[in-house]
């Protein structure tokens, strides 16, 4: 069964392409060579394109993604914009393109289309206004010529133009597109070249698809499976997408907790509840790059059970729980019990992570919470952890520690909590602990 998606305003029909064909391969084979292949693993940003989606409030928006690891069937029913679609021949350049020209933001030019498309996303983001937000918007794009200064100058100029254009109500067809609703991608059952890609519209349909073939693999953002395809030439006879299942993408708040669908993207999580959980927000700011967070999911980050995944330490420090589901029913487990060995979890055959349950900080008894996240890596951005740590401490009005959680990644076969250290903290005041902290700090500095 063929499928269609919209590419630069025109409907494209896909038939006969293997489900593991990447969007980048598809584009370049059809002459849209502005998107470049640099790393083939989502690290350099040269392949960046924009996909029309919805923000955490349900409003239409553009999301920059790495087309080198986006599998083609994931775009079924969606709208894609490439650098070629920003300005047709004879038309004025888009403001981000003009800014790059005027500020000499291109040298060899290989990275330029990717930077342009990342700037294109930022241009239509109302929350991309400050210098640090601009840095975050661009950190997923690498320039081989080290031309970052003129590129950054171009970015600042483009954002200034955006603000003036909005005030002046300048006609912009891309902004006008955001005035119309975005449809759900819909269900899909696509088969070609001996491989199959299924996007169910319900949990029952998802479990049914998983039961068809023991080799079936779940796929959410494909930020890991996409790399398996491009770097390891991996074959996936049956891929079952999570994107069409409402329960897996929803983020809701109850009186006791936030309930995060396992297939909710990291960007959606950051937009929805980052302000309530400072350590979570801090972690997300250094989790890969914007293009990855626009596709990656928290459930996927946990299910891979990597001991250096950034998500687990923060969630462990916040006493997160997981709702696991299968065709037979559901069960809730504490995240601290979920990891059983290196790359091993409690997930049974046919079982998935349905939700991450993040308890709200207790307000009873006047407890005050302090939390933080620290990451050691070779680069500040777009890099994997060497060691990561997350801390969450609740104190009463007298300054006594009533609850302490210290969690680490990269120090053992699984993400772990330092339980003996937690016990040593609880029941003591912060004033008691300060001399100990100073003594330990001085030892590190010797």
What does this structure look like?
There is one protein chain. The chain has helices spanning 23-29, 95-102, 112-123, 131-138, 148-168, 173-177, 203-212, 225-232, 246-249, 266-273, 278-285, 290-293, 298-303, 311-317, 335-338, 419-425, 430-445; strands at 3-7, 10-14, 48-54, 60-66, 79-81, 188-192, 195-199, 217-219, 238-241, 251-253, 257-261, 321-326, 329-334, 339-341, 344-345, 352-359, 368-376, 387-395, 401-409, 416-417. The chain folds into 3 domains: 3-177, Beta-grasp domain (Ubiquitin-like (UB roll), Roll); 190-219 and 233-246, 2-Layer Sandwich (Uridine Diphospho-n-acetylenolpyruvylglucosamine Reductase, domain 2), CATH 3.30.43.10; 248-445, Uridine Diphospho-n-acetylenolpyruvylglucosamine Reductase, domain 3 (2-Layer Sandwich), CATH 3.30.465. The longest helix has 21 residues, at 148-168. By secondary structure, the chain is of the alpha+beta class. Strands 2-1-5-3-4 form a 5-stranded mixed sheet. It has a 5-stranded antiparallel sheet with strand order 10-11-16-12-13. Strands 6-7-9-8 form a 4-stranded mixed sheet, with helices on one face. Strand 1 (3-7) and strand 2 (10-14) form a beta hairpin.
């Amino acid at each position: 069964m063929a499928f269609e998606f919209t590419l630069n305003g025109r409907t494209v029909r896909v038939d006969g392409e293997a489900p593991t064909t990447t969007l980048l391969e598809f584009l370049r084979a059809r002459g849209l060579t502005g998107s470049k292949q640099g790393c083939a693993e989502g690290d350099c940003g040269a392949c960046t394109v924009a996909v029309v989606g919805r923000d955490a409030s349900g409003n239409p928006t553009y999301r920059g993604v790495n087309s080198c690891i986006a599998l083609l069937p994931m775009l079924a029913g969606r709208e894609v914009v490439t650098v070629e679609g920003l300005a047709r021949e004879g038309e004025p350049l888009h403001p981000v393109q003009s800014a790059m020209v005027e500020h000499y933001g291109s040298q060899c030019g290989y990275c330029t289309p990717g930077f342009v498309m990342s700037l294109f996303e930022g241009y239509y983001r109302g929350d991309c206004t400050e210098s640090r937000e601009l840095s975050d918007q661009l950190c997923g794009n690498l320039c081989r010529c080290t031309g970052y200064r003129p590129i950054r100058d171009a970015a600042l100029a483009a954002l200034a133009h955006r603000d003036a254009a909005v005030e002046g109500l300048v006609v912009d067809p891309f902004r006008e597109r955001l005035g119309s609703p975005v449809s759900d991608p819909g269900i899909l059952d696509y088969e070609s070249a001996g491989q199959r890609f299924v996007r169910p519209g319900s949990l029952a349909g998802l479990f049914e698809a998983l039961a068809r073939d023991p080799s079936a693999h779940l796929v959410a953002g494909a930020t890991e499976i996409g790399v398996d395809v491009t770097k390891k030439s991996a074959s996936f006879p049956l891929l079952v997408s999570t994107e069409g299942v409402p329960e897996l993408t929803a983020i809701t708040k109850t009186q006791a907790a936030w309930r995060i669908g396992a297939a909710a993207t990291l960007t959606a999580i950051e937009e929805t509840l980052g302000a309530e959980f400072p350590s979570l927000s801090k972690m997300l700011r250094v989790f890969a790059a914007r293009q990855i967070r626009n596709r990656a999911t928290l459930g996927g980050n946990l299910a891979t059970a990597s001991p250096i995944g950034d998500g687990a330490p923060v969630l462990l420090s916040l006493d997160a729980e997981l709702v696991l589901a299968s065709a037979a029913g559901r069960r809730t487990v504490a995240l601290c019990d979920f990891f059983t060995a290196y790359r091993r979890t409690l997930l049974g055959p046919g079982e998935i992570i349905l939700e991450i349950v993040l308890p709200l900080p207790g307000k009873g008894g006047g407890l005050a919470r302090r939390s933080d996240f620290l990451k050691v890596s070779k680069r500040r951005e777009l890099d994997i952890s060497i060691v990561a740590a997350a801390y969450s401490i609740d104190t009463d009005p007298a300054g006594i520690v009533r609850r302490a959680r210290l969690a680490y990644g990269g120090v053992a076969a699984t993400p772990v909590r330092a339980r003996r250290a937690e016990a040593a903290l609880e029941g003591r005041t912060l004033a008691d602990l300060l001399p100990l902290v100073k003594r330990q700090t001085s030892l590190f500095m010797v």
